[in-house]
């Protein structure tokens, strides 16, 4: 009986994760990041629904949805080529600031070059 | 005379979680585990989803999920609700998570009677777990 129990535990929890489980891992990490961000910034589900232009019900449904096929497919392909995919949080503001700075630098340089060329 | 109940706690080892921040155990009473029996009723996909949730609970600090309630408002245990109808119950003992209960929700919500009974179970398991690991 004890051995059966251990075998069942091992069958369920001791196996290497497959593509489907990795997809679940990814979706759970994704929602953890989203919910942590929402809590940190005081964003409610109603706010999120408003921002997405969706009803509150559809936002709730979204939080409980199974991973869609494209995520599954993605993990299957990644697994097939021996690639590990993980979700990483990046500060969106910083990225946007960086893009803005690079654009401004480009414009400045471009203008200066233009002036130089024109001068 | 009634034979004393025998408790055991089976530690879960995950292949892809090398350094968990919490240890997860499955409570076994008299050679039976409600959690394992509950898992056996589920489809393969549902089991994978739950396994993934448990892994994240063990490896992410303050893991947040719409499917996990770390603590009920009235009781000292939490629940994992992967599909609404099927609910797994757990408790935290320090840095350990003990999965101890499973219920299939038949009506709109489980009544307080069920939650009270689960709390009794929780107290039993908590007491035994502390004894087990002292």
Task: Summarize the entry for a quick read.
The complex is a heterodimer of chains A (119) and B (134). Chain A has 119 residues and is mainly α. Chain A has helices at residues 2-13, 19-41, 45-52, 56-63, 69-80, 92-118.
Structural description of this entry:
The complex is a heterodimer of chains A (119) and B (134). Chain A is mainly alpha-helical. Chain A has two domains: 2-87, no CATH class; 89-119. Chain A has helices at 2-13, 19-41, 45-52, 56-63, 69-80, 92-118. In chain A, α2 packs across α5 and α3 (45-52) packs across α4. Chain A is elongated, with a radius of gyration of 23 Å. Chain B has 134 residues and is α+β, with helices and mostly antiparallel strands. Chain B is 33% helix and 25% strand. A six-stranded mixed sheet of chain B has the order 1-2-6-5-4-3, sandwiched between helices. Chain B is globular. The two termini of chain B are 28 Å apart. The model of chain B has no long low-confidence stretch (mean pLDDT 89). The chains are: A mainly alpha (119), B alpha+beta (134). The interface between A and B is medium-sized, with 27 and 32 residues.
